[in-house]
Amino acid sequence: MDYCPESHVDYPELKEAFQKMSEIVNWINNEKRKAENIEKIEQVVTKLTFYRVIFILFYFIYLLLFYLLNLWKKKKKKKKKKIANRN
């Protein structure tokens, strides 16, 4: 457009073609931006899901250890009662 004078016969068609190409380029850029945003969102969701799974695993380990500790305490109490009953 910079090199074609407005008085040139093809100028109106060139101007229209330039506008349409600009629209297409803008549309492509917007679609690319949307795709990049979707990819970033997917990465965040993947990380959150991973951390959630890790949290759940640690929570179950905590519960298991808590259960085993209580079981051990109960056995210890029973053992003390048996010893006390013998005397």
Please provide a written account of the structure.
By secondary structure, the chain is mostly helical. Helices cover 87% and strands 0% of the residues. It is built from one helix and no strands. The chain has one helix at residues 11-86. The model has no long low-confidence stretch (mean pLDDT 91).
In short:
The protein is an all-alpha fold and 87 residues long.
Describe how the helices and strands are arranged.
Elements: H1 11-86
Helix count equals 1
Which H/E pattern describes the elements? H
Mean pLDDT: 91
From the helix content, strand content and strand pairing, which structural class follows?
Answer: mainly alpha
The unreliable regions are none
What is the alpha-carbon Rg in Å?
Answer: 36 Å
Shape: rod-shaped
Structural features:
87 residues, mainly alpha, 1 helix
